[in-house]
Amino acid sequence: MSMLLFSGFKPEKKRDNPFFTEFKTPFQVPPFDKIDTTDYMPAFMEGIKQQNAEIEAIVNNSATPDFTNTILAFDKSGKLLTRVSKVFYNLNEAETNKQLQLIARQLSPVVSKHNDDIALNEKLFMRIKAVYDRRKVMNMDDQQLRVVEKYFRDFERQGANLSPEKKDQLRKLNEELSMLALTFGENLLAETNENFKLVISDKNNLDGLPQGVVDGAAETAKEKGMAGKWVFTLSKPSMIPFLQYAKNRDLREQIYRGYFMRGNNGNKNDNKETVAKIVKLRLEKARLLGFESYAAYVVDDNMAKTPAKVNDFLAKLWTAALPVAEKELAEMQKIIDREGGKFKLQSWDWWYYSEIIHKEKYSLDESELKPYFSLSNVREGMFLVANRLYGITFTKRTDLPVFQKDVETFEVKEANGSHLGILYLDYYPRDGKRGGAWCTDFQAAGWENGKKVYPVMSVTCNATKPTADTPSLLSWDETTTLFHEFGHALHGLFTEGKYTRTAGNVPQDYVEMPSQFNENWAGEPEVLKAYAKNYKTGEPIPDKLIGKIQNSALFNQGFETVEYLAASILDMDYHGLTTPADVDVLKFENDAMNKIGLIPEILPRYRTTYFAHIFGGGYAAGYYVYIWAAVLDADAFNAFKSTGDIFNKELAAKFRKYCLAESGDDEGMVQYRKFRGQDPSVDPLLKRRGLK
Ligand SMILES: [Zn+2]
Fold it and tell me: Is 601 a catalytic residue?
């Protein structure tokens, strides 16, 4: 392993490692053009060394522990490590390759050990505890008090109070768990991007597909060295239109099977055993830390506080949503019977027949909408909304280094022209990019030596690619996804606060509120008029189509809510286990779904073996947070609506201040109440989804 670590350092070719100093680029964005793969490992090693030295200095300080010499010093430690981590882990998601994957595997135990070395450092904890114990008499302001309390709690939650023997056990568990998460992600990437494709050589099998979809599949075929054929992959922009429009039912089944069998094919990328191990080890970890389940451990830190509260919340929504989905199913079965189909609708038919309903009942054809949603128009639309709410502006930059040629960069400025931050936008699927959409930062907003550090945010999507003849035309789902991720970016851009631990740091069931909140504007008529313009003629979207979008807001909401809730409940079930066992994951999933009465025509949005949120990422016992946050976002938007002005400046300023800029200053619900002046109500959400 160590052989590869420093192989980039050849004495004859002395070059500076760009991570070792502050970036010398405009706005201190990462110098992607100067970073070599061989720079990462040495930077991680040096970063760890530096942070260890910083912590040694805190621990060996002979002065009595106080806020500045202990809490603040710790809060500011690890700068180099943060700098390299942000670049490396962002690229390993968005632009990975075998080399980066190898480094990630080598790093996993090293970083896991380093984090544990800090979390389980007894002397450091004793100093933090000393400050914590005397916090009320130490003359600290509210924010300092909060930082002290947060750190104290972090250490407790990470095992600082455990015996040395149990600490060792915990270290081993953390190390194994981080490696298993990587394995899960790598398997899933291979199962999504490599192990399956639907190759069509007979033109008749394209029946029903809109021209744009056919063109896209031809391009994909060309890229994969199969010019003249048509290739569909398991990335959503490729698969979903196929499921929506392809008349060939067998092929629909083939591609959907490809999708829902990912990680469950008994090949070398099978995830079943990995999941069973993760579930088992997480429970062990939770018990070690004094919790009865992993869910109890996770949710303890959230707004919800207990798994029982989450389960209760999900069960209520489930009861409201399942009958709506069953009604949708019955309607579609009628169409099949009417057409003399003589078969029962299966899960791979849902998109096809719901698209027919979309057309018949709402007379809305997704391909009729698409010309109005070119990616550049949607982007301008979301910029416009932010401008009208908060006064901020966006200027495209062409002088900043990017990590991939299609990535665009923008400078974000306050209404008065002062700098606010940088935004990277990365739009299209690639082989080295995982599925989904997400928002991260290369640099979080903060303070350094009394000066503001400006954020560098990054939004990554997997949107429909342009073809030779048409620009990227987004589906409605892709449009709202872009608004969503941009909402996260705004949270990051507006974040204020002096301390790393608290600035912009919100509980997991708050995180999705700012993003979902921002989605609300995408479908408002006056907003649509401004951005949804035909990419050929420049004509704004006609009122008739806007009316249809509004009418179809309730379309398929039973299905969407049910598939989402099913996945959330599956997540809570896995992590709610209280007795260690070797779980047979297929049986477990089956039992969990039978228990709630999920109909076989709907699969959970993520089945076990490709549930990356909870087994590859950080959403374990936390997939529920989207709908928890949806209660907040629907209620918050309702506040704007009820003033009769969706651009109400006074409310926008309040939202920016309490819910975004100062979001980490107090508990999530407290911040929300400061904005809203009252508790959130669940009614706006139920109404929005037609569940009430
Ligand atoms: Zn999100």
Answer: no
Q: How far is the CA of 512 from the centre of ligand 1 (A)?
A: 5
| CA–centroid distance, residue 95 to ligand 1 (Å) | 20
Regarding the domain delimited by 2-161, which CATH topology (the fold level of the hierarchy) does it fall under? Neurolysin; domain 3 (1.10.1370)
Looking at the domain that runs over 371-554+627-688, which CATH code has it been given?
1.10.1370.40
Q: What are the boundaries of each domain within the chain?
A: 2-161, 195-260, 272-362+557-623, 371-554+627-688
Residue 12 pLDDT greater than 80, yes or no: no
Among 523, 213, 520, CA closest to 355: 213
Which of the residues 93, 411, 485, 662 is marked catalytic? 485
Q: Residue 363 — pLDDT band, cuts 50, 70, 90?
A: confident
pLDDT tens-place string over residues 640-685:
999 999 999 999 999 999 999 999 999 999 999 999 999 998 889 9
Q: At what angle do helices 40-59 and 79-94 cross, to 10 degrees?
A: 150
For residue range 23-42, list pLDDT tens digits in order.
Answer: 999 999 999 999 999 999 99
Supply the CATH classification number for the domain 272-362+557-623. Answer: 1.10.1370.10
Cβ 351 vs Cβ 241: under 8 Å: no
Ligand 1 is an ion; residues with CB less than 5 A from it: 512, 515
Distance 205 CA to ligand 1 centre (A): 36
CA 35 to CA 16: how far, in whole Å? 10
Q: How far is the CA of 515 from the centre of ligand 1 (A)?
A: 6
What is the value of pTM for the model shown? 0.87
Average pLDDT over residues 559-567: 97
Q: Residue 137's CB: how many other CB atoms inside 10 A?
A: 7
